Automatic annotation (TrEMBL):
<keyword id="KW-0949">S-adenosyl-L-methionine</keyword>
<dbReference type="InterPro" id="IPR020598">
    <property type="entry name" value="rRNA_Ade_methylase_Trfase_N"/>
</dbReference>
<comment type="similarity">
    <text>Belongs to the class I-like SAM-binding methyltransferase superfamily. rRNA adenine N(6)-methyltransferase family. RsmA subfamily.</text>
</comment>
<feature type="binding site">
    <location>
        <position position="20"/>
    </location>
    <ligand>
        <name>S-adenosyl-L-methionine</name>
    </ligand>
</feature>
<feature type="binding site">
    <location>
        <position position="112"/>
    </location>
    <ligand>
        <name>S-adenosyl-L-methionine</name>
    </ligand>
</feature>
<keyword id="KW-0489">Methyltransferase</keyword>
<comment type="function">
    <text>Specifically dimethylates two adjacent adenosines (A1518 and A1519) in the loop of a conserved hairpin near the 3'-end of 16S rRNA in the 30S particle. May play a critical role in biogenesis of 30S subunits.</text>
</comment>
<keyword id="KW-0808">Transferase</keyword>
<dbReference type="GO" id="GO:0005829">
    <property type="term" value="C:cytosol"/>
</dbReference>
<dbReference type="InterPro" id="IPR011530">
    <property type="entry name" value="rRNA_adenine_dimethylase"/>
</dbReference>
<keyword id="KW-0963">Cytoplasm</keyword>
<dbReference type="Pfam" id="PF00398">
    <property type="entry name" value="RrnaAD"/>
</dbReference>
<feature type="binding site">
    <location>
        <position position="89"/>
    </location>
    <ligand>
        <name>S-adenosyl-L-methionine</name>
    </ligand>
</feature>
<protein>
    <recommendedName>
        <fullName>Ribosomal RNA small subunit methyltransferase A</fullName>
        <ecNumber>2.1.1.182</ecNumber>
    </recommendedName>
</protein>
<feature type="binding site">
    <location>
        <position position="47"/>
    </location>
    <ligand>
        <name>S-adenosyl-L-methionine</name>
    </ligand>
</feature>
<dbReference type="InterPro" id="IPR023165">
    <property type="entry name" value="rRNA_Ade_diMease-like_C"/>
</dbReference>
<dbReference type="GO" id="GO:0003723">
    <property type="term" value="F:RNA binding"/>
</dbReference>
Length: 272
């Protein structure tokens, strides 16, 4: 097996796109079982690459939308029946428009995300969580550990709070480097993300700013970071600042965010 892509496909993995192609058939089968695609569902795959995951998904559901930035791969994908190809950077894709096209069915979003931009992609998808049934992503295991982390540990941080506010998440499958070609230098994992039907009603921008301030000096007590931020906003309520950011549960952050400002509606389009 060439480290630069499968000989059969003849495609060279491009570092600038963060391409690592999944080649282990047993792992692919396990991922598809976790996703459990069904005919008629509105599946969207981010980064289909050489169709390692796309093909078995297509066999089970009959049709899906794929988002591919690499123009050479996008051209190959268009030749396959059952695929609607969106040739674009996923960070520019309007998932609200995809949801409109699929309505009334909610989207099911899957993908082997480029590890170099995985967090921006997760944040890009947040505004449309209300129109998504579930998300299954392959990510660097270290990122998945941070996503599902509970308060009190070193993995718990901004990513944990912002995503757990909107999703129930679990790590469902570990994937070793040798399952890819070329192998990444890190372990990977599959995370399942299920949007909460009734998330805490907060303004996402307020929560984001609050959490960013709290974790800006995570080794210090919150009075040194979040305390000053709250004082600048004129906050006069009670919030225990004699603890570190990693000790505060998600519900406490969202309660504080709700006190600070009017809740933004769960919009289908990102805030401007």
């Amino acid at each position: 097996m060439s480290r630069h892509g499968t000989p059969q496909a003849g495609h060279v993995a491009r570092k600038r796109f963060g391409q690592h192609f999944l080649t282990d058939s047993a792992i692919i089968g396990a991922i598809v079982r976790e996703i459990d695609p069904r005919p008629g569902q509105a599946l969207v795959e981010i980064g289909p690459g050489l169709m390692a995951l796309t093909q078995p998904l297509l066999e089970r559901c009959g049709a899906l939308t794929v988002i591919e930035l690499d123009r050479d791969l996008a051209a190959r994908l268009r030749a396959r029946a059952g695929l609607q190809v969106v040739e674009a950077d996923v960070l520019t894709v309007d998932f609200g428009a995809l949801a409109d096209a699929a309505a009334p069915k909610p989207l099911r979003v899957v993908g082997n995300l480029p590890y170099n931009i995985s967090s921006p992609i997760l944040f890009h998808l947040l505004p449309w969580a209300g129109r998504v049934a579930d998300q299954h992503f392959m990510l660097q295991k270290e990122v998945v550990d941070r996503m599902v982390a509970t308060p009190g540990g070193k993995d718990y941080g901004r990513l944990s709070v912002m995503l757990q506010w909107r999703y129930h998440m679990e790590s469902v499958l570990d994937v070793p480097p040798e399952a890819f070609d070329p192998p990444p230098r890190v372990d990977s994992a599959i995370v399942r993300m299920l949007p909460w039907p009734q998330p805490a009603a907060v303004d996402p921008a307020v929560l984001e700013a609050l959490v960013q301030s709290a974790f800006s000096q995570r080794r210090k007590l919150l009075r040194h970071s979040l305390g000053r931020w709250l004082e600048a906003r004129g906050y006069t309520g009670h919030f225990d600042l004699q603890r570190r950011a990693e000790e505060v549960p998600v519900a406490a952050y969202t309660t504080l965010a709700a006190e600070l400002g009017p809740a933004g509606k769960d919009s289908d389009t990102p805030p401007t």
